[in-house]
Structure formats: structure tokens, C-alpha cells
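Same chain as my last thread, 432 residues:
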Amino acid sequence: MLKLLSFLNKLTIQKKVGLLFLLSILIINQYVWIWLFDNDGYLKELNKIRFLIINSLLFIIGISLFFLELELKKIAKQVLYIVYLILFIELASFFTIKILLNSNNKLKRDIDYFLSDNTSRFLPDLRSDYKPNKEHPDINQFGFRYGGKTNTKDFFRIMCIGGSTTWGDGAKDSSTTYPAQLESYLRSKGYHINVINAGVPYHTSLDVLMRFISKGIYFKPDMLLIHTGLNDIGPVQSPFEYKPDYSHWRKVRNNNRNLYKKLWHEFPFSIPRLFFILYFNFDSQQSVSQQTSNVRQELMATTRISQKRTEGFKNYFSTILDIAKANNIIPFTVKINNDHNRKNSYAKRYFQGENLEYAINRDKEITLLHNSIMDSISFANEVKVIPFDEFQPSSQEYWYDNCHLTEAGIKEKAIFIGEYLIREFKIPKKIM
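reply #2:
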């Protein structure tokens, strides 16, 4: 022992570090791993590769430092220490992962399931379940921003469906949204009205249809105001090949599953694996629906605008009307009011010059196309159309972007729609 200590004391720092690297191989190798953790004596090919890489690095660095007279500068020595530290952390991560998986059966099952190829190829499309956060202070127990009382006998019930322009972007709370303002205005005129705000931001006509089927009809509204189509512009503008179910524009993804699988199976180190285990919830199988293109891409896309790209919208809008009428609900179409010439529009935020002109004209063309489709389908179904595309608030400042109104503008919108209903439909003053 004394001779060994004397031998070690005589070694230079360089040789001591080299010896440390070489001795590490006695611990960091596949045989020790099998002895400690794999009683069946089997080691996966990926683990063999991992050990081969680590052992080769340890051997080359160790031999070089111990037998070669190298003039290592301070920075080079620090690099070597860092390399060794990384290798040590890798080893520690390796053992930690094995201990975690051996001691926690649930974690092992979750990871095995997550990384397997046996999970269903068909993931649920959660678009129909888009709804405001339940913790939002304005959301009532029925999932609506406003209205939805169960009593249907004493009031004539109007349900408003659509996207953010129905939900009420620009309104500070539920009482200042257009459905709530519509209720207030009609009641001030003596009409016995209850209005439900069933709008959800980002909803397309497909989402509106699904929400109406799954929830809307069960509240038995007497009238349905369908303010949809604006968010259907995105699928039409999309630079990708059009699909009528909008799967080209919005895809369901599962927590970047494929990326994690690839890194886990093909990246030969344990440090990122341990990171995944500690910071990623493998038990979470919640799918998310995300857009495949952004507004900038859509406004500048060169895809041709055609009737072919409106097949989905036509079908969904028509079906909403059919379901409403089949349930003895009186539908009204509310046309789109969308103009990128307005202050703070998406086009003006992102572009200028020729690009701005192109974006404005392109979006205008699609808006006119969607309004014409709603016109023709509504006429064929004998459904009245509220010409909201003609709505011009008393001040242009009442628009805060190309399609959303401020609170003052929303109030005028409610009056505009309310006046149309009074003129074109005999709303009961009181239901006996």
C-alpha cells in the first residue's frame, strides 16, 4: 500500500488524470452494468453502443495522458476535467434511470406505452372540445360566457354561436359581449328574451357545428344566430393542399411524441433521457390541435382561391341550418364583416407596400366568397340573412382590428342585429 501511495505521489497531475480515466473503465462498462441491473445477462444493442463510445473515450484520453508527455495548457486541462465530469454525469444518469424504472412500475409502464409503436394511429380531434378555460371568471356552469339558464318556459331563447366575434374579443366581461347587449336591448324594447353566448374563440364552422350538436340543441333555443365563417378563411388561405375536414390547416398532435421517441431510441446518452423522465409527464396522453400555418403565411400564400376550397364550409354551414330546422329552431345567418384596411388589422401589422395590398385584396376576395356562399345556402333554405357586412359603427375607432370591435362598437352591433330581428321576425313580447 505504501509503495502504491509513493508511486501515485510521484506521478504528475497529467498522469494522475490519465490513470483516473483508465481506472474508470473498470466501473463504467457493460459487464458491471449487467451484473448490477440485468440479471438475464442481456444488454440492448443501443446500450452496447453507448458503453463502447464511453469506454473508447476513457481509454484514448487515459492512455494519451498517462504515456505521452503532453504540454497541456491550463485551458486544455480544464477541458479534460469537463469531459470527465460529463462522463461521470452520464454514468450517474444511466444508473439513476435504471433505479427509477426498477422501483416505480407505474413510471415504467407509462414510458413503455409512450415509446411503443402499439398505440392507436387515430388520435381524437379535439376541435369540437375547444372551449374557454373553465377557470375564466366569465364562464358559467354550462360552459357559456353568458346565459344558458335551464328554464325554457318564460323566455324566448336566442342562442348565438360563432368564434371570437361572438365570444366577445374587445369586451371586458360577459355583460358587454354582443349576445348580452342584444338581450339587454331587446328587453328594453319590451321583448321577453333570454340570450345565450355559445361562442368560442378560433371556432370554424366545423367547430360551431360540433358544439351545436354536442351542446347547443340540448338547451332548446327558439332561435339560432349563426355568426360563423370568418375563421374558415384560414383553411382557404392556407398554403397547403386543401382538405374539406380542415386537417391540412389544423392537425392533432400528441405532445411531440415522435420527437421524444426518436431521441429516446436513437440518442445514445442517458443525460437527456433522465431529463425527459424528470420533467416530462409520460402519463399525459392529451392531444392538442394546432394550426399548421400562421396568419402571415396565409395572407401571402399563392394558393388559388376557388369554390373547391370552400367545400368544407359549405357542408358545415348547411348542416348547421339543417340540424336547427330539424329541432324546430329558427336559424338566422349573420354575415362576415372583415376588412384589413382597418387600423391595426393583421395585414397592416405584418406587411407594407405591395405585400400589404396583396394581403388586403386576397382576404377581401375570400370574405366576399364566404358571404356569397352563406347568402346562397340561406336563400335555398329560406333562412333570413342579417347583413352584418353592411354594419358601419358611428366611429371607425370602434374597430380595434380587421374584424373585432371595441365595447362601444359591440354595443352598436347588438343594436344593429336587434333592430333587424324586430323588423324581420315577430319576437314574442311575452310567452304565456
